[in-house]
Each structure stands twice: as structure tokens, then as C-alpha cells.
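Anyone up for a design puzzle?
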């Protein structure tokens, strides 16, 4: 009977010893859990304060804010600190600051503005002191990327857009409908009315600023949709260089170096016109022998199967007025571009017969370029462009030569695009959409030169059978080229949307 009692007593003693050892283990674990919950609480509050500081200060960065200016930068960092203190001071659980830093920087290439907030705090321990740990450190960081978008849409309204149209919708209707979804409809557009800037330029041989860039592009009267629907597609030539230059000029006028500046070129053909100041021959019948400013073009289609370089008998026309081309509000004046000669052309042969321009203007200069928007504030640094080198060479400068005129048209656009891509102030990105048509159904129309358009965009990924090594030039802002049919325009614009979102990611 005594043995069980001794066994029972031994068990009680064992439990007492076991509990004593267990307490030595459990109490630190409980203390550790409590201290960890304190650390987690402080960490969460600290992260919220950093997030609020980065986002709050970001709301004070306007389109015109120059974060590279020391004064403006200091003001922003003061704002970051105010937002941080408002959300964290006094610090919970008697935490004390170990470190705090903030910065507002701008990427020199992408112009992305980055707000960074970093902070760490010492947190007193409650139970871990028994293990010799009097405090622990928690840290947090928040990064906010800010970038606005300035978009200039450049639409080719040349004659081939109309001539190659067919189906339920004409080509102009497809372009207008897809562009409205892209920028005009707030439900489908990534561009935010009141925040982003959108403008529209159309070009044939001349150009027209259909819609001056503005932040209220969807709510203005008239708005961007109205102007898109009123683009004057007619029997126009293709002065790609002029359209690109005038879009670049509009971006420069905004003078927003921190924005993502984008030029979207939509075209269906090859350049056929260029702008310049042309010297009059001594024997000309022009009343005034002062230089004539306007554009010269060479016919793309003459009813015969397309040829490039063009045959020697292809007409060359000029000197036609560069801007404004005509009344761009409905009802339109039929073929106004082809009949509006340059100012001060009295008694010139080409005034009555544009295709006789070589009688008055035998040669064009080696340096050509825009006539308007070349003076004043924030003019692009380059306003003259080589006509004989760039994409083609060897064409000469004879106005009687349709090949020389076409080569100059290519070179004008090529050299303007190159200047845009090397603009270190605004770093515009060029997206080119080449609209293909059924060449078998329209044998008189020139097909796209995909290599050329990819070169204008400086597409890093483009290759072809004729450009197996690509067209990309390092050191120049890269863009992208899209080779699509008219029915593929919407998909191309959707991809451009994703590209712009990636470059302007917040």
C-alpha cells in the first residue's frame, strides 16, 4: 500500500520540476510574442506614414513643377516631412527615430519623377529585456513614381486614305472611330481629362492644327472628338515631315520637361511633299522675285501601276500654301490644297498651272524646313533640315525631277524625326502606325515603306527581309512601329496604350 503513495509523490515532484522548466521557456515565448506584436504595430504605422508622405507630396507635384530646381525640390521635401509627421508623430510605444530621409528625383531620360521616403525607429522591448534585448529597430520605405502624358496625334489626310477605302466603313471613318475610342471617350481612354494633355495635327501637303493641346480635351467646346470627326481627308499629298515638326513644336510650347511627351503618327503612305523657301529664277514671270514659301510635291498616283522612284514624267506641283490649307470646318472646300498657291505668287506660271512650277522655281535648296512656328519662345532647337541626305541621297535638287522631289520629302521627314529623337529637353517618343491596304485591289497606289516608318520611330525590335539587322539607332529615344491594316488600327492603339502606361507608370 505504501508503494503507490511513493509513486504518486514522485509524480507530483516531477510535475513541479517540469512546470518550473516550462515556465523558463514559455514566459520568454509569450514575451517574444507580445514584443513582436508591438514591433508589427509600429512597423505598420511607420509604413502608413511613409506611404502617406510619398502620395501626399505627389499631389503637390504639378505639370510645371521642376524638381531639379533646388528651391522647388526643398519645398517638396518639406511637404513630405509634414505629411510624415502628421501620420506618425508622436510615435507609438515610445519609439524613437533612428533615421529619416526623403528625396525627389527625375530620371534624365524618361523624365519619371520619383518620390522616396525612408524611415527607421528604435522600439523599446517589454519582455525581451530579460534576454538582454532592450530595443529593436523597424524600418519602412515608400516610393511614388509620377509622370504626366502630353500626346500629339498626327494624322495623314492624304488622298490615298480616301482612294483605298471600301467596305461598310470608309478608311476615314475607321480612323475617326478608333481615335475617338483612344482619346475622345472617357470610358475607353487612358488619358484623363484635366490631367493629361492631348492635341491633334493633320497633314496633307500642308498641315493644320486641328486641336491645340489642352488638358480639357474631352470637355472643351469643340472637343477632341469633334475635331477628329472633322479631319479633312481629300486629294492631298503627304508632307510627313511637316506633320512631325508641327507636333514637336506644340510639345515644345507646353515646355513640360517632366512629362512623357508622345507623338503618334498615323499614315498610309510614303512622303511626297516638303516645305521650304524657294528662290525664283531670274527669267520668271512672277511679279515679285522674292522667295516663295510653301510646299512642293510630286504626284504619287497617275493611274498607272505604282513605281518608286517615280518615272521622269510624273508631275511635280508647287508652290502651294503651307498653312492654313483651307477651311477645316464642314462644309469643306473641295480640293483646296491643290489650288491654294503660296502668297505673293502674282503672275507666276505655277499660279495658273501648279505642275509648271519648274518654270519659276528650277531648283530647291539643300536646306528645307517649316515656314511657320520657327520663331518665338520654346521653338525646337532645330528648324532647318537637309533635303539631299538622310534616308536617300543622289536625287539632286531639280524641281523638274520627281525622284529628287520624292527623295527630299523622305529626307525632310527622316531628319525631323531624327531631331525629335535626339531632343534631350523633352525626349519625345514617336509611335508610327502604318496603315496597309489591299495593294492588289489598288495597283496604282504606293504601298507602305515599313523600313522607313520603323526608322522614324526608332523601333528597337523591328527587323525585315530588307533590314535584317534592324533600324534602331542607339543613343536616340526609342519608339515603336505598327504595320497593320485599317481593321487593325484599334489593336495598334490598344498596344500603344499599354506602352504609354508602362512608360508613365505611377
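Challenge accepted. My sequence:
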Amino acid at each position: 500500500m505504501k508503494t503507490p503513495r511513493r509513486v504518486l509523490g514522485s509524480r507530483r515532484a516531477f510535475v513541479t520540476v517540469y512546470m518550473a522548466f516550462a515556465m523558463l521557456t514559455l514566459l520568454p515565448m509569450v514575451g517574444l510574442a507580445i514584443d513582436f506584436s508591438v514591433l508589427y504595430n509600429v512597423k505598420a504605422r511607420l509604413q502608413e506614414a511613409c506611404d502617406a508622405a510619398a502620395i501626399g507630396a505627389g499631389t503637390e507635384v504639378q505639370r510645371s513643377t521642376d524638381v531639379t530646381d533646388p528651391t522647388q525640390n526643398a519645398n517638396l521635401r518639406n511637404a513630405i516631412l509634414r505629411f510624415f509627421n502628421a501620420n506618425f508623430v508622436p510615435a507609438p510605444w515610445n519609439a524613437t527615430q533612428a533615421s529619416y530621409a526623403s528625396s525627389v528625383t527625375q530620371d534624365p531620360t524618361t523624365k519619371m519623377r520619383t518620390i522616396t521616403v525612408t524611415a527607421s525607429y528604435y522600439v523599446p522591448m517589454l519582455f525581451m529585456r530579460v534576454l538582454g534585448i532592450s530595443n529593436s529597430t523597424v524600418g519602412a520605405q515608400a516610393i511614388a513614381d509620377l509622370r504626366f502624358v502630353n500626346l500629339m496625334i498626327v494624322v495623314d489626310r492624304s488622298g490615298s486614305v480616301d482612294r483605298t477605302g471600301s467596305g461598310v466603313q470608309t478608311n476615314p471613318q475607321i480612323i475617326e472611330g478608333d481615335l475617338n475610342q483612344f482619346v475622345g471617350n472617357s470610358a475607353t481612354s487612358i488619358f484623363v481629362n484635366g490631367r493629361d494633355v492631348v492635341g491633334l495635327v493633320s497633314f496633307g501637303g500642308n498641315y493644320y492644327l486641328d486641336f491645340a493641346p489642352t488638358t480639357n480635351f474631352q470637355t472643351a467646346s469643340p472637343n477632341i472628338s469633334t475635331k477628329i470627326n472633322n479631319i479633312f481627308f481629300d486629294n492631298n499629298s503627304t508632307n510627313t515631315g511637316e506633320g512631325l515638326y508641327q507636333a514637336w513644336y506644340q510639345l515644345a510650347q507646353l515646355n513640360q520637361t517632366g512629362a512623357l511627351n508622345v507623338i503618334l503618327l498615323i499614315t498610309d503612305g510614303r512622303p511626297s511633299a516638303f516645305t521650304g523657301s524657294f528662290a525664283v529664277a531670274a527669267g520668271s514671270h512672277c511679279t515679285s522675285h522674292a522667295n516663295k514659301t510653301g510646299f512642293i510635291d510630286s504626284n504619287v498616283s497617275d493611274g498607272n501601276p505604282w513605281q518608286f522612284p517615280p518615272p521622269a514624267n510624273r508631275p511635280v506641283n508647287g508652290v502651294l500654301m503651307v498653312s492654313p490649307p483651307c477651311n477645316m470646318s464642314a462644309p469643306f472646300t473641295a480640293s483646296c490644297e491643290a489650288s491654294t498657291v503660296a502668297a505673293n505668287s502674282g503672275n507666276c506660271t505655277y499660279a495658273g498651272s501648279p505642275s509648271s512650277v519648274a518654270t519659276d522655281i528650277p531648283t530647291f535648296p539643300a536646306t528645307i524646313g517649316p515656314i511657320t512656328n520657327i520663331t518665338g519662345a520654346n521653338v525646337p532647337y532645330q528648324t532647318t533640315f537637309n533635303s539631299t541626305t538622310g534616308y536617300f541621297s543622289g536625287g539632286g535638287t531639280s524641281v523638274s525631277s520627281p525622284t529628287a522631289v520624292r527623295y527630299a520629302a523622305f529626307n525632310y521627314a527622316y531628319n525631323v524625326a531624327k531631331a525629335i529623337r535626339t531632343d534631350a529637353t523633352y525626349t519625345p517618343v514617336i509611335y508610327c502606325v502604318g496603315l496597309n491596304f489591299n495593294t492588289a485591289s489598288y495597283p496604282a497606289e504606293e504601298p507602305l515603306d515599313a523600313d522607313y516608318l520603323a526608322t522614324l520611330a526608332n523601333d528597337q525590335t523591328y527587323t525585315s527581309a530588307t533590314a535584317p539587322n534592324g533600324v534602331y539607332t542607339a543613343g536616340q529615344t526609342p519608339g515603336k512601329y505598327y504595320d497593320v491594316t485599317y481593321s487593325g488600327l484599334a489593336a495598334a492603339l490598344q498596344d500603344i496604350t499599354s506602352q504609354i502606361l508602362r512608360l508613365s507608370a505611377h
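A detail worth pointing out: The chain has a mean pLDDT of 89.
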